[in-house]
Each structure stands twice: as C-alpha cells, then as structure tokens.
Amino acid sequence: MIKAGIIGATGYAGGELVRILMGHKNVEIQWYGSRSYIDKKYYQVYQNMFQIVEDVCRDDNLEELAQQVDVIFTATPQGFLAGLLTEELLQKVKIVDLSADYRIKDVSVYEKWYKIEHKSPQFIGEAVYGLCEINRDQISSKTRLIANPGCYTTCSILTAYPLVKEGLIELDTLIVDAKSGTSGAGRGAKVPNLYCEVNENIKAYGVASHRHTPEIEEQLGYAAGQQLVINFTPHLVPMNRGILVTEYAGLKRKADGSLPAYEEIKAVYDKYYAREKFVRVLEQGVCPETKWVEGSNYVDVNFMIDERTGRIIMMGALDNLVKGAAGQAVQNMNLLFGLPESEGLELLPCFP
Amino acid sequence: MIKAGIIGATGYAGGELVRILMGHKNVEIQWYGSRSYIDKKYYQVYQNMFQIVEDVCRDDNLEELAQQVDVIFTATPQGFLAGLLTEELLQKVKIVDLSADYRIKDVSVYEKWYKIEHKSPQFIGEAVYGLCEINRDQISSKTRLIANPGCYTTCSILTAYPLVKEGLIELDTLIVDAKSGTSGAGRGAKVPNLYCEVNENIKAYGVASHRHTPEIEEQLGYAAGQQLVINFTPHLVPMNRGILVTEYAGLKRKADGSLPAYEEIKAVYDKYYAREKFVRVLEQGVCPETKWVEGSNYVDVNFMIDERTGRIIMMGALDNLVKGAAGQAVQNMNLLFGLPESEGLELLPCFP
Amino acid sequence: MIKAGIIGATGYAGGELVRILMGHKNVEIQWYGSRSYIDKKYYQVYQNMFQIVEDVCRDDNLEELAQQVDVIFTATPQGFLAGLLTEELLQKVKIVDLSADYRIKDVSVYEKWYKIEHKSPQFIGEAVYGLCEINRDQISSKTRLIANPGCYTTCSILTAYPLVKEGLIELDTLIVDAKSGTSGAGRGAKVPNLYCEVNENIKAYGVASHRHTPEIEEQLGYAAGQQLVINFTPHLVPMNRGILVTEYAGLKRKADGSLPAYEEIKAVYDKYYAREKFVRVLEQGVCPETKWVEGSNYVDVNFMIDERTGRIIMMGALDNLVKGAAGQAVQNMNLLFGLPESEGLELLPCFP
Amino acid sequence: MIKAGIIGATGYAGGELVRILMGHKNVEIQWYGSRSYIDKKYYQVYQNMFQIVEDVCRDDNLEELAQQVDVIFTATPQGFLAGLLTEELLQKVKIVDLSADYRIKDVSVYEKWYKIEHKSPQFIGEAVYGLCEINRDQISSKTRLIANPGCYTTCSILTAYPLVKEGLIELDTLIVDAKSGTSGAGRGAKVPNLYCEVNENIKAYGVASHRHTPEIEEQLGYAAGQQLVINFTPHLVPMNRGILVTEYAGLKRKADGSLPAYEEIKAVYDKYYAREKFVRVLEQGVCPETKWVEGSNYVDVNFMIDERTGRIIMMGALDNLVKGAAGQAVQNMNLLFGLPESEGLELLPCFP
Q1: Looking at chain C, which residue has its C-alpha nearest residue A47?
Q2: Separation CA B182–CA B315 (nearest Å)
Q3: Where does chain A hold its CATH 3.30.360.10 domain(s)?
Q4: Which CATH superfamily includes the segment(s) C152-319?
C-alpha cells in the first residue's frame, strides 16, 4: 500500500486528487494538508466526502510528512515547493508537484514569466516533466521528482505533438486558442470568479502573457528539435470543468505542392496515440467536446484540413482537473511505483 | 457473469446505466436497445463511450433479448413494458423496469394519473417496489419484476420516511416542494427543453398534477399505515443533474405540548439510516446540496425544526440519474442476484 | 431634473440603479458612492458603462451628498444608514433605503433577526414601507424616508396579498418556498458564491432563520389584520437573476364545505392587480417563470387550486434586481417626486 | 409612424426585433408573422410579452403584408425570401432581410456554401450589405433591400476592419476563432441544442466549412482591395447570448523592421470608430467580455500586440441577437427612413 500525502488538499485539484486516490486500490491517503483549514474535518470543507473521509486537515509540514508517506502531491501555488524542497526530502519521499516550479528547464524563463525568484533551481534538472504519453520512458522507480504538466499545456501539447514531432507543420505559424472551465481559476475568493461574473460570459485573458506559453513552447520545441514561439490565448468559459483547444498551423506542402491527405495525417496521429489508452483520436469529422471527457483521464483529439488556406485545425479536449491535473498526477505516481499506468484511472466520462 | 440488456439505452437514464454497468465487475452488457438508433454504433450516440463500448444499437425485441440475457433494464416511456410483458418473458429473465408501469398497486390510480390504459395489470401485484432501503427484504433471487422508483419519489420518500413511519408528523400537513435538474426531462427534442429556454430560468410545472404524487402517497401511506394526500410541486432548475426536495410538515407535539428536540428527531433518522450506506444524515445545520451527491448513489438528508411554526423542514438531495434511476436499478439488480448491494456503486461524488 | 446620489453604487443593486436611472428622463445621477473604489472611474468597475458613465466613484459622505442631491439611494449593508441618519439629513434630502434598516416597525424584532443594534430607531415610525402596489397612498412629496422592500419579501407578499387581505386562506398554514438567482447574494468575494460552488447546484439556506421572514409576516399581518407566522425557506439557484416563490396555504372552505372556484380566486387577484401595471396575473394554467420578467419591473403571479388537499398553490416571479430592488426604488422615487409611477421603468423583459 | 411587419416573429431574432421595436417611438408593429403559430396570441409563445403585445401570429403572406406596412423584416431560414421576392414587392415596401439571401454578391459562392439554388439572383446587386458603420453612405430612403449581416460576421468584420482597411496586417495570416452563445442556433427543437447537451460543454463546429466564412472574406476583401481567404472556426458556448471573436494576424513590420506601437494601432481603430456610437474601442489592456454588451447594440473591440510572434490579437464582443441581428436591423431601418441611427437602440447593457 502506497502511503500518500497531499499538500493543498482543499483546492479544486487537491479535492480531485482525493476523489481519485480514494478509488485507487494501492493507495492510502495519510495526510490532508490544508493550511487554511487546519484541524477541520476534511468533509466539512468538501461535503461530498461526508462518511467517506474522516480525517482532519493538517498543516504543510513537509518534514514530518516525508517521514510518514511514500509520495507527496503538492497542489500548491507557484513557488511553494521551490521554497521548501531539499535533498533530504527527496531522499525520503517521491514528490509529484502539480505547480509549475520544476516544469521549465531554463530558470530565467521561469522567473521572467512567473515573476518570482526560483529558490531551488538545483532540482530543476532532475525533475521529469510528467507528460506520460511523451516522457514515459524517463519515469521509473528511480525518479524522485515529477513536474506534473499544466492543464492548458497538457491539452495544447498532446493535440499538436504528432505533427510537430513529424515535422508536418510550419512551426512559426502555430496558434493555440484555448477555452477553459472555471475550476481552472482555483477556489480563491475573488470577485472575477464569482458566479455572476463568470456566468453568461466569455472573455480572453492573459493575452500574449499567460504562463503556460513557455511551457508549451519548451515541450513542443523538444519534439521539433528546435525552438519555437507560439501564440497562446486562454479564455474563461461558464462551465465547471473542461479545456478545449483549437490550434491552427500551416501544413507543409509536399513536393508536388499538394497538402497531405486526411489519411496521411490520421496515420501520424495513430502512430503516436493508437496504443495510448488515454488519448482518443476521434473519427473523421467528429469534433472533440469537453463534455465527452468530463470526469475522466481522456484527451480527445482530432483535426480538419482546410484546403482553402492550407492550414490544419487541430482540436483537443480534456478535463482540466483530471488529465489536466490530478489524473495525470496519479498516472505519474503509477509509473513511479511500477503500477499499471491506468490503475485507479478507469474513470468513465459522465454524461450529461 | 450476469448478462444484461438495456431497452432505451440512448436516453439519459439508459446512458447512465451503461456508465454504471461498465464499471460493475459482475455484469456484461449484451444488448444496447434503442429503436431510434438501430445499427448505429452506441458511441456515435454517446461519444463519451468512444473506444469503450464497441456495440451497435439494436431494436427492442424483448423475446430475443430474454433468450440472451439474465436481466433486462427497461428505461422506456410509460406503457412500453406494460404493453409487452408476458408470463413467458418473466419465466426467462428478470426485469428491472425504470418506467412507472408497475409502481402503483391500484391500477385505476395509475390509469387516472398517467392517462393510459394498463395493458398487463396482472403483473402489478408481483412487482416489488424497488426502494431498497425500505423494501430490501422483499427482493431476492426469486423476485422476477422490480418497479424501480421514480427520481422525485425516491428523494421525497426517503427524506420523510423515518418521521412518517414513526408517526411523528401530522400526515395531512405534508408538502413536498421539489427542484430538479433538466436531465429528468429526458432527451426528447422539445422546445421547452432547449438550452435557451431552461438556462437562467426557474419555474414550477405539473402543479397539483404531477404523476409522481400518487407514488409518493402510496409508499408513505404504507409507512404510515393509512392513506395520505400530499402537495407535490416539481420545479425545473438550470442544471444537468440533481434533485432537491424541501418538505414541510407539522410536528406532533408531545404530551406536555412541547416539540421534539433536535436529538430526538436525529435519533429517528439514525434508527433507519445509520446503517444505510447510501443515505447520509448530515450533521446538524448542514443543508443538503445536489452538488455534493452528483454522480453518486447517495441521498443526503437533513432537517430543521422551526419552533415558531411547529413545523419540521426536511431536505433531501440525490442525483436523479443515479440514485433516482440507474444507480438504484443496479442496487436492485445486486439484490436480485445476491451480490453485495453496493457492488458497482462505489461512485464518489464529483466536485465541482 | 431630479439630482440623485447612490451610496453603494458598485454592488449589484447599485449597478442596476445606475442602469435604470441612466434611462430615466427626469433624473441625473450626481454621485456614485463606493467606498471600495474611491477615485476609480465607475466604468472601470462596470465595464458595460464604458463611454456611458464618465464619473468616478466617491466616498460615502452623506452630509456633502445631501447638499448636492434631491434624493439618496442607499444600497448598503444593514446598519449603515441607521448609523448615520439624522434629522438634519432628512430635512435636506429624500432617502430611499434599499437596506432593511427601516422596514420593520418593531425595533426589537429587527434587532433579534439582524443581530445588530438599531442606532436610529426614532426614524422607523416615519419611514414608509415602499411596496407601491399596497402602500402607494402613503407615499407623496411629503414623504422623507422610504424603506424599500426586500427582494424575497416583495415577491412573497405580492403573491399572497389578495388572498390574505380578503381572508380566503388559513393564515397559520402559509408556507413560502422561495428560489433565488445568485445576484441576490451580492458582489462580495466569498467562496460559497464562486462560480464552481453555485453552478450545477441547488441548496436551501437560512432555513427557519432568514431575515426576510419577519418582514413578510409584518406586512401580511397588516393585510390580515392580525399577526401571523410563516415558514419561509430560500434556495440558491444557478442563475444570475430572478426569484420564484411557491406558496402553499389551506383555502377556507365555503359554508357548503366546497372550495372557492378558480373564477372566484381569479376575481380576487384581479380586484387588486387588474389595474396594476407591474403585476401581471397570468392566464389559467400558466406558471410564472423568472425568465419572462428578467430585466423588467414586472411581477408575474398565478395560482392553482388543489381539490385533493384543499390547498392553494400560489406562485410569483420577479427580477430580484429590478422589482426586487432598484426598479422598485425608482418606482418609489417617482411617487416621491410626483412623477408617473412607471417613468423610466418601461423595461421590456428580455428573452432569452 | 413607420408600420413594420415581421416574418419569423417567433424565432429568437424575431422576438428580439419585437422587444426593440416595441420601444421604438417611430414604429408600430402591424404583423407578427409566424407560420408555426398562426392564430395563436403572440404572448402565448413569448410570455414575456403578456399584457404588452395583444396581437395574434399570422401567416407569411408577403403580398398582403406589403400592402399594409412600410418595412418588412424577414427573420427566416435561408432561401425563404429569395424564393418569394419580386419587383412588385420591392416597389411597395422596404425589406430588411436577416437571412443570408442577399449578403453575398457572387451567387455561385452563395450556392456553394449554402447548398441551395438562389431563386432571385437579380436582386443581389441592388441589396446593400447593411453593416452601417462601413456602408452607411449606401443606405438611404432610396434603398429598397438591406442584406442584414450575420452575427459572427458583424463581430468578425468590425474587429479587424480598421487594420485590414489600412493595410496593417498580412492578409493571408488572418484567423478568426469565434465563440457564440446558444441563441445563435435558433429555436428549433433539435437534440444538440437541448439544455443537457449544451450545458457544461464547449465544442467547435462547422470547422473550415461555416457559411459565415465567405461573407467575412467578401467584406474584408472590399476593405483590403483584394481577395482574401481566412480560417473561421465557430464554437458553441453554454450561455444564451453573446459572441466573442479572437482574431490573429501577422502585423506588417515597418521599414526598420519594428512592429507598430500600441499607440499607432490604437489611432487606427480610433480613426474608424471614435465617432461610432455602437463600437467601443476599450482602454489598453481591457479584454472584451460578452457580458458587458448583453442586451445592447454595442460592439466592444480591443487588441494586443505580441512582440514575440509579431502577431496582433484582435478581440471583439457583441450580443448576437442585438448588434448581431435585430439591433442592426433596426439601425438599418433608421437609416432607410431618415431617422437618427440610434433611435430605439439606446439599450444599456445589463449586468449581471
């Protein structure tokens, strides 16, 4: 039985970790960390867990936690883990960090986009970027620190990855227009996240400045074998869960000037995803919808070729709290402990 | 392995049956009946099941179905099963009927409220009203026909049952004000169920005439040991899932003219529900919310005593597609086949 | 031109006052009071007013404000106006108070339900309870202080008023089950009002303890000519605007034991409302829906007689920010200044 | 007094026409055409109009209608007007057509994208594309036929127009990612528009094939003085009203290789829109939100320059039923009859 601790257990991603781990037959949650609710029963914060979780919330004592558990999930604000992580901790416990602290290899890029100083850059090199479908080989029982990918980034990267990897698109034309449900904004009490402000409304935000931009660029850059810059525009949508990305890129033309056929592109997606349990390449003409993956660890992807403009429109959908956060974290944990990758993640999408 | 067939597999309740049964380790779905989509892949109707369900939709041939499966779930319009049920069928297969055809023992009451003739009243007597928490003892491997309770009725009955059973309220004062999400209206293409008609709106409907009224009256009448009439008013709420009932009744005063104390009422609820897995009596002062049970088979109940008016306000919440339909159907199926009652129903509520 | 000042101009009710007064041809807003946003452009708080309102937000200086304007609207928390009101102020300016400070005549009732000390009870007697359809005669150019009714109370009272006034129902059986959109909870940054907490959810709150209870009781008590106690249960609904009330009461039977006929009850409603512009008694069988009054000053009411239980179910719907707050405040202002009562309130309901 | 007739008065755009025209002091609605509801009271279809509109719905008899009114609004399916329009009609009455029948000058383009034969191409040349901010000069009392622009197109065109007109962007890089509320899908009873299908969901549709594409291309082509092709991707958002477009284009660099500064681009927007009542260029850094224009005839636009990619991100928001349909139709009508362009359109956005 793997003993797990969660720091930030009362945020939305933390709550989803609890839901998923409670259904995981190899895991026992030992520590519900939540600075805001110390000594309060966890179910008094999340009443859905009444008669299911009896534990109280505890503070963020990483030292003590490391003594008691095998793995720590940190669902915490940026900078939290970076400020506390030590070699001693990593010798005692594995860490899956749901924040951005160790996702970006170039510390100056991190500090520029996040506007905070990185307090423990010495661990960045060691951290594995835990996008399992791409970096599975780098994650094993020897791995100590996982940088769990962001919600937007998981969706954005997986949607474009096969074409970038195979060199089929003009890299400098890639644009990602992303739409997210409101749980992505967290559980902080802020006016812009009030029901009446979000409901019956849609807006872009963080235009040309959202922090997930360099993360997407870095990872797709590895796939491309060269640096790239993209436009990434997130939007806030009046729904609880779900991210949809619509990505645009110029398709490289073939020697004869023609565009690749549908079947050729489909074959490339299948090459990378046909054996992936959690990535579903939809049938021709079917557009991904966030509702079809809600509550599950799936990413649905598809594409459309526009002969008129020579562009391909790629689309992807996932549940930001599952594949975009807690589900992927558990997927990484499974790899860390040598379990089947989908253990505890056989969550069927719930409709409607 | 229990072989199951579903008639009406592409309605919302049918879809939820598929979701739950797919996660049930003792069940295999053999037949996805859906007259509207015959020969279409099931996942083309419910894209969430892509790469999960490969079967095609089939017609409603009960005869053939009875040859192939151990249990049939009928998630069909009123009158469908009543028009087709025969002794031969019941000798071959167990049936869990999610329609109202066999819920009401007095056929004239059924015909009056549903405004259709009952075509097979001879089976009404045999059918067990499958509200497991109350009628568990009547359901066994010998039972052939389950009348699965309605969504509003399950919530309305369980919320008031302990007090009615123990004779603590004035029966002729009972009022049920119910609020339901829109999946309860089904998947039929009707203008009143369009997004723009339901969204940002709330209304009562079926006032003093909703068909779930006599069902609640009959079942609470058994508990009370006498007939009763109630007011039942359903409302349509802009959300997908969930039913909340708010029930009002005059509390009987004690010999000294005083009202029962909180603890006394709580003890009565606990007497009936403390050992029930799927009924949670909340802590004092906590009001049930539909969101806290979403996706699960739980019913959350609680109450408040109003000293000023002498009334008790009882509240209950459930997911209309789970405990109010498909979850309860599976709970009944488990009893029919001697399985643990909660098998396949360990669904944690999903928040947010 | 009437000069108006608003204290609390950046709350939801304050914002609606701005919207309505901007379209009122006899009014000029002179003062946008908002302690939280002093010196900020009003449109930077409510971007819908960009290029429409150029003023900045100002503090709550009632003294100075009284010098500059003819009428002050206080859309402020309970206790604010009571703590500052003086005879000097009332000699200079008319006040329409959207808080509860002067709604309840018995100060001890106010203090018990609101749990604050009333700082200026000497003005309670003078204040007119501004439910225009009932108290129109008491509001004239001599009136100095209007206690603008609450949102739930306006809807609850108007829905039952004709029957209470005419003595047609058993007073001790009256139950009000109310459902409100989330703008009623205000614009404060609190976790329970976040999008993800409210969306896809419904709950009761303030059961047997909501502050609008004594206000309804007092006003219906005047109509009845005797005190009454009621059950009032509010619910939070995932929509921005709108209140629906469903009210239950036993109908008094006639000498021959029969219940009044539909036409008799309808005639009573018409007696009070046929000439009221803002109260619409719907046609037989049509249930009020909040969407049909959204953005307007209408209250839609109707009823259904249940022969089985002997009860009448009364229903009412209004827009909590218009007839439930700002619209009614303007209606009162019109009466205070001798304008046509509906001036500036010819707002057509917006659908969908 | 202008006498107006509406064909398609019970669709969502038709209903909005009624709401706006009822508040227009120079217009009287003479004819509520609705084939589906002939002889039914209009308010029985749209209960918000109870006690406001007493007329009954009538059939689509254009001949008779032309005798009785000065202007006909056709809020009808594609092909309806084209199939009935005659020279005789146009000699008697002005027509504002909210369908696409006369928007596209090249009939073969229309027939290709709409997949129907155009039955009266002889009138296409005469029709004025009624995007008032651009084509105002072409609309006068001599104009007989207005092709009222589409909802997506109005938003897409106005957002990019100044930059296209001034030649500041690379035309072949223009991408329009659009998001619409569900009223845009109309009031037809179809499963994909049911509440439970749309709610808590977002999806793209009509990818690379939506019919508004050629309309945007044609109009922006006039501005550019050359043909262009774009990518246009609409998305369905769970809200009633509102369209948001996010547009991407490469900025042309200046001689020195630098990008234009914010102020330069702002000046270009101001050149075209500073005197436009209904187009609001927001302050730097403020992103348009659909909620801020709801219920009004405004279009809010803004932009962000991304130095990293050399692209400009343009954003626009409007209410699809007002500026995207009925409001713009009335704006056109005002021009046709020599009224102030904003007459009847002083609708303040409603928040929340």
Answers
A1: C197
A2: 20
A3: 152-319
A4: Dihydrodipicolinate Reductase; domain 2 (3.30.360.10)
